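Dear support,

I submitted the protein below through the web form. The confirmation email said the job was done, but the results page showed an empty box. After a refresh the structure appeared. I'm attaching both so you can tell me whether what I see now is the final result or a partial one.
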Amino acid sequence: MPEEKSTILVVEDDVDVADMLNAYFRVQGYEAITANWGEEAVRVSNSSQPDLVILDIRLPDIDGYEVARRLRDNRRTADIPIIFLTEKRERADRLKGLQLGVDDYITKPFDIQELRLRVRNALRRSMMSTLTNTVTGLAEGVLVDERLSECLIERDWVLLLISLENLDSFRESYGFVASDDVQRAVGLMIYNALRGVGGPNDFLGHLSPTEFILVTGSGNVSALIERIRTRLDQSLDYFYPLKDRDQEGRIDKRLSVWMSQLSAQDGPFSDLDQIKAELMKRRI
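What the results page shows now:
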């Protein structure tokens, strides 16, 4: 499976510089997109969610500080690494950027090799910070793939997928804080069930923000399924305000959970993608 390219957004009003950086980073193996205005940069960041932004401070409309502030204030773009590209060298300007959560700072005229290394380092730091889910603290991404890859050579394992449905609808009605509380609480209930009846080498993480993946042994799976079902079935209604708990027929797309199960005996499996695809088919 080919490695996914990181996307860099270059925000620079000098078209020649923007085109040069776009071409350079494409040669280096990145996807590159450009924006010449601050408002355009905010719009593109929201729609495309690049992996990193190279941001000039001096722009024709809003300046780079305002662009950075808006990106940091928006939940969708708050964690995107930002490297300021500027002619300013004063300490106050650097402090202002750091206060906004900018990750790095490079002044013009810049060394293109230095900028490349700063981009690489910022992306690596960002990747390390995304190994765990920011809401639940559970493993995701590379850590989950590494654990699932071990199943290709192990002989006794069972995967449980616990999918939390309709969280987007819940978020629209009750807000981000309430939906994060649901996600965090569901993760904690699954973790406590695993700690209570699971084995010492069991693993819990995310396939997606609303999909929890659990790796256990065949001897533990029945008790785990029963405990997880019981705890979640008893709890989902309590995430709603008191006035809405008895509105089961009136609230569209209420919170619910479904599970699927896959074991080593269902194989053999040739690769990680096949394991994930088969897991999705085996709803219980």
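Response: this is the final, complete result; the empty box was a page-load delay. The chain has two domains: 7-129, 142-281.
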